[in-house]
Task: inverse folding
């Protein structure tokens, strides 16, 4: 039998910062949490202990592929429970890691496509530098020479500026996504779905499952045979869905647990 491939976004889909946990129940009923990421000696990301057990089961039953917009360095500091994934997708599809090492052929193919199909990263970076107000921008970042993002103060961020940036980016072949305190500008040809299809081809998977919460996950959900999105995030805020995508009511870390249950049910 061919394996099932499970491609899941990580942040705010399977793992959660303290601010994103959404623990709305009484304290005494809150789930036990497992820290899965430490950064600069501080705990950063969590999942429930139940979710950790489910992910371990999933890793034994399917080809689990962490699929993230994080850079390789940011991804590699996550310590997920269960078997170490053979494949991981980083930089929104710009890198496929095989046993933790980037596939250089895939990287070169992606870079060539970006050069042919959209405006340069330099042009986008310069536009962000010229138009973003230091009053609400905390950091300017370039990720893996693929895309740019800003870390902002959300309460000070003008909504109109984000809309204007999206229009400016659209005609240049880029897309804009606002996730928490980060605004991403990402080339449209740089997709999680293309990388997922490549991994599915390599491992011979004929059934693909996916989950994600943000605009940058929409193409991944559409490309998979079945997809799930939680009750929070960019996709929930815009009420985005599709025929093959199941909308879950759970929000926060409880959604991560539910998504893993859904994955396991389909795999079995």
Result:
């Amino acid at each position: 039998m061919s394996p099932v491939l499970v491609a899941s976004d990580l942040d705010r889909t399977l793992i959660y910062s303290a601010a994103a946990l959404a623990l709305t129940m009484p304290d005494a009923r809150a789930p036990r949490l497992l820290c899965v990421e430490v950064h600069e000696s501080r705990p950063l990301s969590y999942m429930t202990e139940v979710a950790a057990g489910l992910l371990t089961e999933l890793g034994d039953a399917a080809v689990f592929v962490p699929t993230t917009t994080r850079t390789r360095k940011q991804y590699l500091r996550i310590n997920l429970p269960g078997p170490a994934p053979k494949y991981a997708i980083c930089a929104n599809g710009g890198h496929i890691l095989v046993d933790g090492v980037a596939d250089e052929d895939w990287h070169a193919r992606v870079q060539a496509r970006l050069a042919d199909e959209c405006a340069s990263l330099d042009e986008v970076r310069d536009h962000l530098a010229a138009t973003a107000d230091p009053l609400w921008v905390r950091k300017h970042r370039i990720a893996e020479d693929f895309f740019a993002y800003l870390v902002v103060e959300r309460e000070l961020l003008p909504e109109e500026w984000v809309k204007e940036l999206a229009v400016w980016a659209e005609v240049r072949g880029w897309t804009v996504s606002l996730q928490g305190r980060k605004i991403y500008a990402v080339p449209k040809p740089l997709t999680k779905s293309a990388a997922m299809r490549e991994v599915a081809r390599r491992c011979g998977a004929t059934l693909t499952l996916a989950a994600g919460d943000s605009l940058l996950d929409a193409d991944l959900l559409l490309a998979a045979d079945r997809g799930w999105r939680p009750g929070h995030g960019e996709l929930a805020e815009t009420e985005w869905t599709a025929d093959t995508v199941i909308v879950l009511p759970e929000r926060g870390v409880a959604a991560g647990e539910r998504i893993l249950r859904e994955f396991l049910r389909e795999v079995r």
User: Anything to note?
Assistant: The chain has a mean pLDDT of 96. The CA atoms of residues 141 and 227 lie 30 Å apart.
